[in-house]
């Protein structure tokens, strides 16, 4: 379990990844994303999660430069969008992302969704990028167990991370167990259910016991379950609030109560049925 905002988890290739970071989906390029990333870096965050399709890689890169944090202290994730999947197109998409970010390398590059018939070719491109030293780690996102099994049947390198929708209403226990058995770290997207979980009465009641907000309770539940988490906010006070979870511990009973909220309920698309 990570003990503070800068604490790391070690991926199966030895690369150290912060267990907590800032997500920037639905954050406007320009001032909004530049400010969000700067607030996070000022608050001590080291990891930023973007994607080509978020169309804000340039702003993320600008914030990194302006904040003046040494590059080697940061952990930057971006993702290959569905339309760019395939061997040559994924290689080209990576170069575009790198240029927009203004970086020499990316820490973690993810296949954004398991596009049928394409993700194995995309993965070969990822393996090349990894071997060429352009990315420190490679992984996938939105992969069910069967997608991973299919990928692993031909892969030379096992993905280091699977970033999936994960929150108390979609706790993904079977997939988490499978990933653990393969040494693949699980990272939660929409940990706050894209903001929709924040008025959950059970979580509110737990929060009151610890004098913490619902967001803090959920993010602490992630940490205590060894789930890498990347909440998004554009507001400085919430970016600070979300990271202020290392001074309390949820009891085993409260962890169990939160586990029991699972309804396999998604806020986003099912990776077996997406049309983008
Ligand atoms: N791989 C994928 O397919 C995928 C899909 C979705 C997301 N992601 C990644 O996961 C990250 C997080 O997911 P997400 O952006 O969907 O949502 P989230 O982190 O679950 O929730 C963000 C929402 O909650 C609000 N919020 C955040 N902290 C709060 C707080 N302390 N109190 C009250 N409201 C708060 C935010 O509003 P304000 O901004 O107004 O504070 C925003 O509306 C994304 O940004 C992205 O990096 C990946």
Automatic annotation (TrEMBL):
**Which keywords describe this protein according to UniProt?**
NADP, Oxidoreductase
Source organism superkingdom: Bacteria
Binding positions for substrate per the UniProt entry: 112
Q: Specify the NADP-dependent oxidoreductase domain's residue ranges.
A: 21-262
Q: Where is this site: Lowers pKa of active site Tyr?
A: 79
Residues annotated as coiled-coil are none
Active-site residues, record numbering mapped to chain: 54 (proton donor)
Check the record and name the InterPro entries matching this protein.
Answer: AKR, AKR5G, Aldo/ket_reductase_CS, NAD(P)_OxRdtase_dom_sf, NADP_OxRdtase_dom
Record's SUPFAM superfamilies? NAD(P)-linked oxidoreductase (SSF51430)
Q: Which Gene3D superfamilies match?
A: NADP-dependent oxidoreductase domain
Protein's UniProt keywords contain Oxidoreductase: yes
What are the protein's GO molecular function terms? oxidoreductase activity, acting on the CH-OH group of donors, NAD or NADP as acceptor
Family annotation (Pfam families): Aldo_ket_red
Q: Which family does it belong to?
A: Belongs to the aldo/keto reductase family.
Any idea what this protein is called? Glyoxal reductase
